């Protein structure tokens, strides 16, 4: 574990586990969480002989709670600062939700140009664009994201309880097995971060058009998405993203929720390993 200071003076926290000579797997977390959200995947890949790295996005988790830079450009640049600091090569970058947007911009702007990225995975990821526009009529209306901002500013602690209790893990579905510890862990991670970063991050994950990022990626890219994702609907994300990727593969999980990396870790981990080793 350690910190790296970015070019604009922001301290970014990261975890770096496993043999330094092993192939690195780099994990990019979703909003409003931290690198801890990847515990199940990091331990799994560690047991399988990989080096695993996860950082906390600026303003999230244990990274500095700075006022500015809560956008995809800075998110990607911060990730590259970690990669350069650790001198990671031949890396596989895996991103969930907002972290998937971070991966797309990272690979397009930094990972491929530097020659440090071998493969990418977008899990329940936000690209190409979540916001409904004339050019993206399948997206979600601005009012949805305004309600996220209102809830974050009004009572973040309650909002960060409601989200994992309900749609994030599909615990609001009939017959779902609710896991209180998972809900509490989501809340813990969220409340560690900065309200300013979380508020600004809503614009970053909802209004950033990443069409050109996806078009620029040439490394093998796996797109994984649950068809019961209530947070990032599959129709305006994964189905579009895979068509924009030059070397993309789509895997759809029937009935799986947005937080399927936690609720169905065994299935997802096996599929991730198969892709990494292919």
Give a verbal description of the structure:
The protein is an alpha/beta fold. It has a single domain, classed as 3-Layer(aba) Sandwich (Rossmann fold), CATH 3.40.50.1820. Helix content is 44%, strand content 17%. The chain contains 10 helices and 8 strands. An 8-stranded mixed sheet has the order 1-2-4-3-5-6-7-8, with helices on both faces. Strand 7, helix 8 and strand 8 form a beta-alpha-beta unit. Helix 4 crosses helix 5 and helix 4 (142-165) packs across helix 6 (195-207). The longest helix has 24 residues, at 142-165. The protein is globular, with a radius of gyration of 17 Å.
Give short descriptive properties of this protein:
alpha/beta, Rossmann fold, eight-stranded mixed β-sheet, 10 helices
**Secondary-structure element string:** EEEHEHEHEHHHHEHEHH
Q: Walk across the major sheet and give the strand order.
A: 1-2-4-3-5-6-7-8
How many domains make up the coordinates? 1
Integer-rounded radius of gyration: 17 Å
Instruction: Report the CATH C-level class.
Output: Alpha Beta
Question: What is this structure's SSE topology?
Answer:
Elements: E1 2-5, E2 11-17, E3 24-28, H1 39-47, E4 51-55, H2 72-86, E5 91-96, H3 98-114, E6 117-123, H4 142-165, H5 180-192, H6 195-207, H7 211-216, E7 221-226, H8 238-244, E8 248-253, H9 260-263, H10 265-277
Parallel strand pairs: 3-4, 3-5, 5-6, 6-7, 7-8
Antiparallel strand pairs: 1-2, 2-4
Helix pairs in contact: 2-3, 4-5, 4-6
């Amino acid at each position: 574990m350690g910190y790296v200071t970015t070019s604009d003076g922001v301290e970014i926290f990261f975890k770096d586990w496993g043999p330094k000579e092993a192939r690195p797997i780099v994990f990019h977390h979703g909003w409003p969480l931290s690198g801890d959200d990847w515990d199940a995947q990091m331990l799994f890949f560690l047991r399988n002989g990989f080096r695993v790295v996860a950082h906390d996005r600026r303003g999230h988790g244990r990274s500095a709670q700075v006022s500015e830079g809560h956008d995809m450009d800075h998110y990607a640049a911060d990730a590259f600062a970690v990669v350069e600091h650790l001198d990671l090569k031949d890396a596989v970058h895996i991103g969930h939700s907002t972290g998937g947007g971070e991966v797309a911009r990272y690979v397009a702007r930094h990972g491929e140009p530097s020659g440090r990225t071998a493969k990418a995975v977008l899990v329940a990821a936000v690209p190409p664009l979540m916001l409904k526009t004339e050019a993206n009529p399948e997206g979600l209306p601005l009012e949805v994201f305004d309600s996220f901002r209102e809830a974050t500013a009004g009572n973040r602690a309650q909002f960060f309880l409601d989200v994992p209790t309900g749609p994030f893990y599909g615990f609001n579905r009939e017959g779902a097995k609710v896991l209180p510890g998972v809900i509490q862990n989501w809340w813990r991670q969220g409340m560690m971060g900065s309200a300013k970063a979380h508020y600004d991050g809503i614009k970053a994950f909802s209004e950033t058009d990443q069409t050109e990022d996806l078009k620029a990626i040439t490394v093998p890219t796996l797109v994984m998405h649950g068809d019961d994702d209530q947070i990032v609907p599959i129709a305006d994300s994964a189905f579009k993203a895979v068509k924009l990727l030059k070397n993309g593969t789509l895997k759809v999980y029937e009935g799986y929720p947005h937080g399927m990396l936690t609720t169905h870790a065994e299935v997802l981990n096996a599929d991730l390993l198969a892709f990494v080793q292919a």
